[in-house]
Design goal:
The protein has 10 helices and 12 strands. By secondary structure, it is α+β, with helices and mostly antiparallel strands. Helix 6 (119-163) packs antiparallel against helix 7 (168-189), helix 7 (168-189) runs antiparallel to helix 9 and helix 8 (198-206) runs parallel beside helix 9. The two termini are 53 Å apart.
Length: 328
């Protein structure tokens, strides 16, 4: 195999390849290395690599590593991919990924370094980090403004309710909806990366309408929801709770609601009401019930059944498990 053929193979590599001898002198320098570091191959052969491509602040560590290898035959950098800083011919430092392999040729100890320029990758990571920080700041600002607006509307609503005589029930219902919206908004603003817990969403969505905590019974395994699923359930829970407070089980202190779910081929979600007295059964064609029957099928690809009986509302939903964050 000719020297020219070997050189062609080296120059066709996608990464920079630099070979040095045991004293640290360059014995090979391919075309990618020429472009990466700004040196011509002929001008670097035989010269100490450390003086050409290693920044001043890292040279002592490089020499210490070479001495350690010569004494022990071991080195922490060898046969490992490491990310460090290198230096171009003009003195500019830049990030690289380095993989060094020792070998012997005619009893001479040599080292081959495969080097990849990480400048573009680091720039992308920094830009992504900047955008994430910017998004976080914008979300905090939006969260602050939404909370302020909801708080102001709630104060005005309660002031109007205090002065009202004929429309007090409407204002009270609207206030409860605002409180529920604010509670759920708090959940979304603090939502962890692995999703929102279903039991927490159910509890927060129902709390503004309950006369006491014992009216709500929740049973089911911990189930986390990504944002789309959580948003859909927030609408469903709010509508169910509102209906229960106006027409259903929690109109009085003795009514109760049972919410449970189970994980099988799909997630089965059940809402059942147990009112103190019989309830009206003529409201099932309202806009709220249209929401209840359409949200989960349309948004999550699930199915829903509702039964409005004098003994209470029964709402059942089956949702594909891929709409939840399930543990493996």
């Amino acid at each position: 195999m000719s020297t020219q053929f070997l050189q062609s193979i080296l120059d066709s590599a996608l990464d920079a390849l630099i070979a040095i001898d045991e004293p640290g002198r360059i014995v090979e320098f391919n075309a990618v290395a020429e472009r990466m570091f700004g040196y011509d191959r002929n001008e670097v052969l035989g010269k100490p690599m450390a003086e050409l491509i290693i920044p001043d602040e890292l040279r002592d560590a490089h020499h210490a590593g070479m001495n350690h290898y010569q004494a022990t035959g071991e080195g922490p950098v060898l046969n490992n991919r490491v990310k460090i800083t290198a230096m171009r011919s003009g003195g500019e430092s830049f990030p690289i990924e380095l993989y060094v392999v020792p070998f012997e040729d005619d009893e001479n100890k040599l080292f081959t370094a495969t080097i990849r320029d990480l400048t573009d990758e680091v720039n992308r990571e920094q830009e992504l980090e900047r955008l994430l920080k910017e998004e976080t700041l914008l979300r905090r600002e939006l969260d602050h403004r939404v909370k302020n607006n909801l708080g102001q509307i709630l104060v005005m609503c309660r002031q109007a309710m205090a002065r009202s005589t004929t429309d007090r029930g409407c204002f009270e219902d609207f206030s409860n909806r605002l409180v529920a919206m604010a509670s759920i908004h708090d959940l979304f603003s603090s939502m962890e990366s692995d999703g929102l817990v279903l039991s927490t969403l159910v509890r927060k969505g129902c709390e503004p309408y309950l006369k006491h905590a014992d009216q709500l019974q929740i049973e089911g395994p911990e189930l986390r929801m990504p944002p789309k699923t959580a948003m859909t359930f927030s609408v469903v829970i709010n509508e169910l709770a509102t209906n229960a407070a106006k027409h259903g089980a929690i109109r009085s202190e003795d009514g109760r609601i049972s919410v449970r779910w189970a994980i099988g081929d799909e997630v089965a979600f059940h809402w059942e009401e147990y009112p103190e007295d019989s309830i009206e059964t003529t409201i099932e064609q309202s806009f709220g019930f249209q929401l209840l029957e359409s949200m989960i099928p349309y948004e999550l690809g699930g199915s829903v059944t509702t039964e409005m009986e004098a003994s209470g509302l029964i709402y059942r939903a089956s949702i594909p498990t891929n709409q939840f964050e399930l543990e493996d």
